[in-house]
Amino acid sequence: MNQVVKTCERIVSNKTFEFAITFVILLNAVLIGVETYTDNVTVKLIQDIILYIYTVEILIRFVAANSLKKFFTNGWNIFDLTLVLIGYIPDSLAEDSASLMSLRLLRVFRVLRLLRSAKELQLIVTVLLRSMSAMFYNFLLFLIFVYLYAIIGVFMFRLPDPETLSGDAKERYEQYIAEAPHAPGNSPDPFGDLGEAIFTLFRELTGDDWTDLRYNHITAAKYGVIKSNSTIITTYHVTWFCLAAYLLLNLVTGAVLNNYQQAREEKDTEDNEQ
Protein backbone atom coordinates (compact mmCIF):
# COMPACT_ATOMS: atom_id res chain seq x y z
CA MET A 1 0.00 0.00 0.00
CA ASN A 2 2.80 2.43 0.85
CA GLN A 3 4.35 1.70 -2.51
CA VAL A 4 1.09 2.63 -4.27
CA VAL A 5 0.91 5.89 -2.31
CA LYS A 6 4.50 6.77 -3.17
CA THR A 7 3.90 5.98 -6.83
CA CYS A 8 0.84 8.27 -6.89
CA GLU A 9 2.82 11.02 -5.13
CA ARG A 10 5.52 10.79 -7.80
CA ILE A 11 2.91 10.95 -10.56
CA VAL A 12 1.18 14.00 -9.04
CA SER A 13 4.47 15.88 -8.61
CA ASN A 14 5.69 14.93 -12.09
CA LYS A 15 5.86 17.85 -14.54
CA THR A 16 4.85 15.66 -17.47
CA PHE A 17 1.69 14.65 -15.62
CA GLU A 18 0.86 18.33 -14.96
CA PHE A 19 1.45 19.25 -18.61
CA ALA A 20 -0.70 16.33 -19.80
CA ILE A 21 -3.60 17.34 -17.53
CA THR A 22 -3.24 20.95 -18.63
CA PHE A 23 -3.47 19.84 -22.27
CA VAL A 24 -6.62 17.82 -21.46
CA ILE A 25 -8.14 20.85 -19.70
CA LEU A 26 -7.40 23.07 -22.72
CA LEU A 27 -8.89 20.47 -25.07
CA ASN A 28 -11.94 20.23 -22.83
CA ALA A 29 -12.34 24.03 -22.87
CA VAL A 30 -12.14 24.13 -26.67
CA LEU A 31 -14.67 21.31 -27.07
CA ILE A 32 -17.10 23.02 -24.70
CA GLY A 33 -17.02 25.95 -27.13
CA VAL A 34 -17.45 23.60 -30.10
CA GLU A 35 -20.56 22.10 -28.46
CA THR A 36 -22.27 25.50 -28.67
CA TYR A 37 -22.12 25.18 -32.49
CA THR A 38 -22.77 21.50 -33.11
CA ASP A 39 -24.16 18.37 -31.50
CA ASN A 40 -21.44 16.05 -32.79
CA VAL A 41 -21.19 12.42 -31.61
CA THR A 42 -17.38 12.43 -31.87
CA VAL A 43 -17.13 15.53 -29.68
CA LYS A 44 -19.35 13.89 -27.06
CA LEU A 45 -17.20 10.76 -27.14
CA ILE A 46 -14.03 12.79 -26.59
CA GLN A 47 -15.74 14.65 -23.75
CA ASP A 48 -16.63 11.32 -22.12
CA ILE A 49 -13.01 10.19 -22.42
CA ILE A 50 -11.89 13.47 -20.85
CA LEU A 51 -14.31 12.86 -17.97
CA TYR A 52 -12.73 9.44 -17.39
CA ILE A 53 -9.26 11.03 -17.44
CA TYR A 54 -10.42 13.55 -14.83
CA THR A 55 -11.76 10.67 -12.74
CA VAL A 56 -8.44 8.83 -12.88
CA GLU A 57 -6.62 12.04 -11.99
CA ILE A 58 -8.85 12.58 -8.94
CA LEU A 59 -8.26 9.00 -7.81
CA ILE A 60 -4.49 9.43 -8.16
CA ARG A 61 -4.60 12.66 -6.15
CA PHE A 62 -6.78 10.99 -3.53
CA VAL A 63 -4.38 8.09 -3.10
CA ALA A 64 -1.40 10.46 -3.05
CA ALA A 65 -3.04 12.49 -0.25
CA ASN A 66 -3.09 9.26 1.84
CA SER A 67 -5.94 10.53 4.05
CA LEU A 68 -9.43 11.95 3.70
CA LYS A 69 -8.56 14.97 5.82
CA LYS A 70 -5.52 15.90 3.75
CA PHE A 71 -7.44 15.46 0.50
CA PHE A 72 -10.49 17.50 1.51
CA THR A 73 -8.55 20.31 3.18
CA ASN A 74 -7.33 21.23 -0.31
CA GLY A 75 -9.98 23.47 -1.89
CA TRP A 76 -8.84 22.63 -5.41
CA ASN A 77 -9.45 18.91 -4.77
CA ILE A 78 -13.02 19.65 -3.65
CA PHE A 79 -13.53 21.87 -6.70
CA ASP A 80 -12.23 19.18 -9.10
CA LEU A 81 -14.22 16.41 -7.41
CA THR A 82 -17.43 18.43 -7.63
CA LEU A 83 -17.00 19.04 -11.35
CA VAL A 84 -16.27 15.37 -11.98
CA LEU A 85 -19.36 14.25 -10.05
CA ILE A 86 -21.51 16.74 -11.97
CA GLY A 87 -20.15 15.22 -15.18
CA TYR A 88 -21.75 11.87 -14.29
CA ILE A 89 -25.29 13.25 -14.04
CA PRO A 90 -27.25 11.28 -16.69
CA ASP A 91 -28.78 13.21 -19.57
CA SER A 92 -32.08 11.39 -19.03
CA LEU A 93 -32.41 12.89 -15.56
CA ALA A 94 -31.40 16.35 -16.74
CA GLU A 95 -34.07 16.39 -19.43
CA ASP A 96 -36.84 15.71 -16.92
CA SER A 97 -36.03 18.52 -14.51
CA ALA A 98 -35.11 22.16 -14.99
CA SER A 99 -33.10 22.13 -11.76
CA LEU A 100 -31.10 19.10 -12.82
CA MET A 101 -30.54 20.69 -16.22
CA SER A 102 -29.13 23.75 -14.47
CA LEU A 103 -26.90 21.49 -12.40
CA ARG A 104 -25.69 19.74 -15.51
CA LEU A 105 -24.87 23.08 -17.11
CA LEU A 106 -22.34 23.54 -14.33
CA ARG A 107 -20.12 21.21 -16.33
CA VAL A 108 -19.03 24.20 -18.37
CA PHE A 109 -17.15 25.33 -15.26
CA ARG A 110 -14.56 22.68 -16.12
CA VAL A 111 -12.96 25.57 -17.99
CA LEU A 112 -12.08 27.01 -14.58
CA ARG A 113 -9.75 24.07 -14.05
CA LEU A 114 -7.30 26.14 -16.06
CA LEU A 115 -6.87 28.12 -12.85
CA ARG A 116 -5.15 25.12 -11.34
CA SER A 117 -2.78 24.62 -14.23
CA ALA A 118 -0.83 27.85 -13.65
CA LYS A 119 0.74 28.89 -10.35
CA GLU A 120 0.33 32.56 -11.21
CA LEU A 121 -3.41 32.11 -11.76
CA GLN A 122 -3.68 30.33 -8.41
CA LEU A 123 -1.87 33.25 -6.82
CA ILE A 124 -4.36 35.70 -8.33
CA VAL A 125 -7.30 33.65 -7.03
CA THR A 126 -5.69 33.60 -3.57
CA VAL A 127 -5.28 37.37 -3.71
CA LEU A 128 -8.93 37.87 -4.67
CA LEU A 129 -10.10 35.68 -1.80
CA ARG A 130 -7.89 37.56 0.63
CA SER A 131 -9.21 40.85 -0.65
CA MET A 132 -12.85 39.90 -0.08
CA SER A 133 -12.91 41.36 3.42
CA ALA A 134 -11.52 44.74 2.34
CA MET A 135 -13.66 44.75 -0.80
CA PHE A 136 -16.77 44.03 1.29
CA TYR A 137 -16.27 47.24 3.27
CA ASN A 138 -15.40 49.14 0.09
CA PHE A 139 -18.59 47.78 -1.45
CA LEU A 140 -20.55 48.83 1.64
CA LEU A 141 -19.11 52.35 1.34
CA PHE A 142 -20.01 52.30 -2.36
CA LEU A 143 -23.62 51.30 -1.56
CA ILE A 144 -23.93 54.13 0.96
CA PHE A 145 -22.92 56.71 -1.66
CA VAL A 146 -25.07 55.06 -4.35
CA TYR A 147 -28.09 55.18 -2.06
CA LEU A 148 -27.41 58.81 -1.12
CA TYR A 149 -26.94 59.98 -4.72
CA ALA A 150 -29.92 57.94 -5.92
CA ILE A 151 -32.26 59.58 -3.42
CA ILE A 152 -30.93 63.04 -4.31
CA GLY A 153 -31.31 62.23 -8.03
CA VAL A 154 -34.93 61.09 -7.62
CA PHE A 155 -35.88 64.27 -5.76
CA MET A 156 -34.11 66.58 -8.21
CA PHE A 157 -34.47 64.89 -11.60
CA ARG A 158 -37.59 62.71 -11.58
CA LEU A 159 -39.77 63.62 -14.56
CA PRO A 160 -43.49 64.26 -14.11
CA ASP A 161 -46.03 61.65 -15.15
CA PRO A 162 -47.16 62.76 -18.64
CA GLU A 163 -50.67 61.44 -17.88
CA THR A 164 -51.05 64.12 -15.20
CA LEU A 165 -49.90 67.00 -17.44
CA SER A 166 -52.05 69.28 -19.50
CA GLY A 167 -51.84 72.50 -21.44
CA ASP A 168 -48.51 74.32 -21.46
CA ALA A 169 -46.85 71.82 -19.09
CA LYS A 170 -47.66 68.92 -21.40
CA GLU A 171 -46.46 70.84 -24.46
CA ARG A 172 -43.11 71.62 -22.77
CA TYR A 173 -42.76 67.98 -21.74
CA GLU A 174 -43.34 66.83 -25.33
CA GLN A 175 -40.76 69.33 -26.59
CA TYR A 176 -38.25 67.91 -24.11
CA ILE A 177 -38.96 64.34 -25.22
CA ALA A 178 -38.51 65.32 -28.87
CA GLU A 179 -35.20 67.09 -28.27
CA ALA A 180 -33.42 65.02 -25.60
CA PRO A 181 -31.42 61.93 -26.72
CA HIS A 182 -32.50 58.62 -25.14
CA ALA A 183 -35.34 60.38 -23.34
CA PRO A 184 -38.22 58.38 -21.77
CA GLY A 185 -39.88 58.12 -25.14
CA ASN A 186 -37.87 54.93 -25.70
CA SER A 187 -36.43 54.21 -22.22
CA PRO A 188 -37.52 54.55 -18.58
CA ASP A 189 -37.06 57.78 -16.68
CA PRO A 190 -33.46 57.41 -15.40
CA PHE A 191 -34.50 58.77 -12.00
CA GLY A 192 -38.15 57.69 -12.04
CA ASP A 193 -37.78 55.66 -8.85
CA LEU A 194 -35.07 54.57 -6.45
CA GLY A 195 -34.29 51.29 -8.23
CA GLU A 196 -33.97 52.92 -11.65
CA ALA A 197 -31.84 55.70 -10.12
CA ILE A 198 -29.42 53.15 -8.67
CA PHE A 199 -29.14 51.47 -12.06
CA THR A 200 -28.58 54.87 -13.70
CA LEU A 201 -25.73 55.63 -11.29
CA PHE A 202 -24.16 52.25 -12.10
CA ARG A 203 -24.53 53.08 -15.79
CA GLU A 204 -22.72 56.38 -15.22
CA LEU A 205 -19.98 54.50 -13.38
CA THR A 206 -19.28 52.49 -16.54
CA GLY A 207 -19.00 55.72 -18.53
CA ASP A 208 -21.96 54.75 -20.73
CA ASP A 209 -23.35 58.05 -22.13
CA TRP A 210 -23.22 59.69 -18.72
CA THR A 211 -22.78 63.07 -20.41
CA ASP A 212 -26.06 62.49 -22.29
CA LEU A 213 -27.80 62.18 -18.94
CA ARG A 214 -26.43 65.60 -17.99
CA TYR A 215 -27.52 67.12 -21.31
CA ASN A 216 -30.99 65.60 -20.91
CA HIS A 217 -31.38 67.13 -17.47
CA ILE A 218 -30.18 70.52 -18.69
CA THR A 219 -32.72 70.31 -21.53
CA ALA A 220 -35.43 69.31 -19.04
CA ALA A 221 -34.49 72.27 -16.84
CA LYS A 222 -34.62 74.58 -19.87
CA TYR A 223 -38.21 73.57 -20.57
CA GLY A 224 -39.13 73.68 -16.89
CA VAL A 225 -39.80 69.93 -16.72
CA ILE A 226 -37.54 69.61 -13.65
CA LYS A 227 -36.75 72.25 -11.05
CA SER A 228 -32.95 72.39 -11.22
CA ASN A 229 -30.36 74.54 -12.92
CA SER A 230 -27.33 73.66 -15.04
CA THR A 231 -24.86 74.29 -12.19
CA ILE A 232 -26.59 71.86 -9.83
CA ILE A 233 -27.02 69.29 -12.61
CA THR A 234 -23.37 69.48 -13.67
CA THR A 235 -22.11 69.34 -10.09
CA TYR A 236 -24.24 66.27 -9.37
CA HIS A 237 -23.09 64.24 -12.37
CA VAL A 238 -19.43 65.26 -12.27
CA THR A 239 -19.03 64.67 -8.53
CA TRP A 240 -20.69 61.25 -8.80
CA PHE A 241 -18.55 60.18 -11.74
CA CYS A 242 -15.32 61.33 -10.07
CA LEU A 243 -16.26 59.78 -6.74
CA ALA A 244 -17.34 56.42 -8.16
CA ALA A 245 -15.02 55.97 -11.13
CA TYR A 246 -11.84 57.21 -9.51
CA LEU A 247 -11.99 57.20 -5.71
CA LEU A 248 -14.15 54.15 -4.86
CA LEU A 249 -12.77 51.91 -7.62
CA ASN A 250 -9.21 52.88 -6.75
CA LEU A 251 -9.85 51.80 -3.15
CA VAL A 252 -10.71 48.32 -4.45
CA THR A 253 -7.67 48.32 -6.74
CA GLY A 254 -5.44 49.36 -3.85
CA ALA A 255 -6.76 46.56 -1.63
CA VAL A 256 -6.13 43.96 -4.35
CA LEU A 257 -2.61 45.23 -5.13
CA ASN A 258 -1.68 45.28 -1.44
CA ASN A 259 -2.79 41.67 -0.98
CA TYR A 260 -1.07 40.68 -4.23
CA GLN A 261 2.24 42.06 -2.96
CA GLN A 262 1.86 40.18 0.34
CA ALA A 263 0.93 36.92 -1.39
CA ARG A 264 3.84 37.28 -3.83
CA GLU A 265 6.31 37.80 -0.96
CA GLU A 266 4.94 34.74 0.88
CA LYS A 267 5.18 32.66 -2.30
CA ASP A 268 8.78 33.76 -2.89
CA THR A 269 9.63 32.89 0.71
CA GLU A 270 8.13 29.40 0.30
CA ASP A 271 10.03 28.83 -2.94
CA ASN A 272 13.32 29.91 -1.30
CA GLU A 273 12.76 27.58 1.66
CA GLN A 274 12.16 24.67 -0.71
Report what the structure shows.
- The protein is mostly helical and 274 residues long.
- It has 2 domains: 2-117, Four Helix Bundle (Hemerythrin (Met), subunit A), CATH 1.20.120.350; 132-264, Helix Hairpins, CATH 1.10.287.
- It contains 13 helices and no strands.
- It has helices at 2-13, 15-34, 41-65, 68-72, 75-87, 91-96, 98-105, 114-117, 119-157, 167-179, 194-205, 210-222, 230-273.
- It is elongated, with a radius of gyration of 28 Å.
- The relative contact order is 0.07.
- The model has no long low-confidence stretch (mean pLDDT 80).
Tertiary shape: elongated
The CATH class of the largest domain: Mainly Alpha
- CATH topology name of the largest domain, in short, is Helix Hairpins
Q: Note the beta-strand portion.
A: under 5%
Number of strands: 0
Question: What average pLDDT do the residues reach?
Answer: 80
How many distinct folded domains? 2
Q: Radius of gyration in whole Å, from Cα?
A: 28 Å
User: Percentage of helical residues?
Assistant: over 70%
Broad structural category: mainly alpha
Question: How many helical elements?
Answer: 13
Straight-line distance between termini: 28 Å
